[in-house]
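Structure first, sequence second, as always.
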């Protein structure tokens, strides 16, 4: 009979100890709180990344629309300049680069044109001077 009481006491001790460890362990609670915060942070990061991706996709779309509108505006003004001022020579024409229909959809044509603020000749740093070695 003593063995039975000992065995019952041992099993009850294990159960009571497990319950006490489960509810009384601060590290376990802290670990669960950290796990919850980690999952919450991951969800917020994923939402932020998705928002950022959609923002840049929309920005790219708007920039593409703006480039298309710029091409159309430039082509319209260049065509109008040539038709309204036919007697102006190329040097005095404000739009010396008329776009053809094939070039309208080409993004590289505008990149090849020299900006209006660049000088026509080389700067003094790049010109050869009488004192420079050859």
């Amino acid at each position: 009979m003593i063995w039975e009481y000992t065995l019952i006491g041992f099993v009850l001790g294990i159960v009571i100890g497990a319950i006490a460890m489960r509810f009384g362990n601060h590290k376990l609670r802290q670990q669960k709180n950290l796990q919850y915060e980690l999952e919450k942070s991951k969800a917020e990061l994923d939402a932020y990344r998705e928002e950022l991706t959609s923002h840049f996709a929309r920005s790219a779309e708007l920039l593409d629309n703006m480039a298309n509108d710029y091409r159309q505006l430039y082509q319209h003004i260049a065509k109008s300049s040539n038709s309204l001022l036919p007697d102006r020579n190329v040097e005095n024409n404000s739009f010396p680069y008329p776009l053809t229909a094939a070039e309208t959809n080409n993004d590289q044509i505008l990149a090849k044109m020299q900006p209006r603020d660049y000088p026509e000749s080389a700067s003094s740093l790049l010109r050869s001077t009488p004192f420079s070695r050859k």
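Margin note: The two ends are 114 Å apart (CA to CA).
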